[in-house]
Amino acid sequence: MACKKNISVYLIAFCLFLGGVGYLAYSGFSENSVYFLNVSEAKAATPEKLTAARLFGTVASQGIEKHRGGLGVTFSLEDKDNASQTIVVSYSGVVPDTFKPGAEVIVEGGMGSEGRFTAKTLMTKCPSKYQKENRTS
User: Fold this and answer.
1) Are residues 70 and 19 in the same domain?
2) HEC string for the chain
3) Per-residue confidence band for 2, with pLDDT thresholds at 50, 70 and 90
4) What is the pLDDT of residues 42-82, one digit of tens each?
5) End-to-end distance of the chain based on CA atoms, in angstroms?
6) pLDDT beyond 60 at 38
7) What per-residue confidence (pLDDT) applies to 83?
8) Are 38 and 99 in contact (CB under 8 A)?
């Protein structure tokens, strides 16, 4: 009789453990899912998909406006492969030193109601100092 009692305690503990792991996996995937898109994919996506998204592209050469007070910038993000596809991005934090026209950037945030992507984070791709230069002799 004591053996059956021990097995049922272990079985209940195992089920609780599996339930806890399942809940953690479900909540981790559902709440923190961020879509990683290029500009063309973002323009074709539904607004629900862009409430939490990470976009990548290059900074357009025109239309960069620094915010008053020194923090933040508004700029156009171009698709790396199709420069005619752009999204206006507004960012209100510290702008990296490597941010400039033509720089590859990743922005994370969401699409606002006015059709402007509001970024919480702005990261630039750092050029590698070990990258070989193309020289013609």
Assistant:
1) no
2) CHHHHHHHHHHHHHHHHHHHHHHHHHHHHHHCCCEEEEHHHHHHCCHHHHCCEEEEEEECCCCCEECCCCCCEEEEEECCCCCCCEEEEEECCCCCCCCCCCCEEEEEEEECCCCCEEEEEEEECCCCCCCCCCCCC
3) low
4) 888 877 778 888 999 999 988 889 888 778 999 999 988 88
5) 89
6) yes
7) 77
8) no
Is residue 135 a part of any domain in this protein? no
Query: Cα(43)–Cα(77) distance, rounded to whole angstroms?
Result: 11
The parent domain of residue 71 ranges over: 34-124
Please tell me the total count of domains within the chain: 2
In a domain, 118, yes or no: yes
- The strand pairing partners of 86, in sequence order, are 78
